[in-house]
Design goal:
Elements: H1 9-20, H2 25-32, H3 36-65, H4 69-111, H5 123-159, E1 167-169, H6 170-174, E2 182-184, E3 187-190
Helix pairs in contact: 1-3, 2-3, 4-5
Length: 195
Amino acid sequence: MGRKSKLTESQWAQIEKRLLEGEASRALAKEFGVSEGLIRKRKGTRVKQIKTVGNQLVTAELAYRALDSGTREGTQRYAAKLLAISDDMLDGAAHAASTFRQLSAIASTEMKKVDVVDPHLSLDTLKAVSSLTAMANEAAKTPINLIAANKEAVRDMAQADSPAAKTISWDEFYGSAPKPKQRRAGVILENTGTQ
């Protein structure tokens, strides 16, 4: 078990919040008396993920706002169907993983019945074990493919070189309400309106 952090969870939450607001990890490390590497290790991935997803949400919201009302309704119906399909796929993957586990357990139990001294006496049992193992492996394909796809998506997000460099105006994000320059969810929002 690793050494207990000298910072509380509340302090770690504060560091995360301030990282998301654009403060440098080096300055935070100095202020909180921990190494910059520890901050990166403890919060780096999560902060990068929040910024990436935040940027994706902003991009999607801006694209959605640009649609006419009829297209928005169609977009909402389509998105709801995609979410339902995703939920069904996850449920199916969970069922397939459970099936894999059960078939593997049965195959393991049957394998214990094999006569190791004279396996020829157990050919029917070995055929059953082989069949159970093949079915278990087939059932495992869906959850394994979903895990692989998720790992690819996470890797692609990490390699995206943080779309934080994309600059959008406050008018694009908030309409015509001018605001001071700030950082929101990893996107630099510039005041392009008058004050």
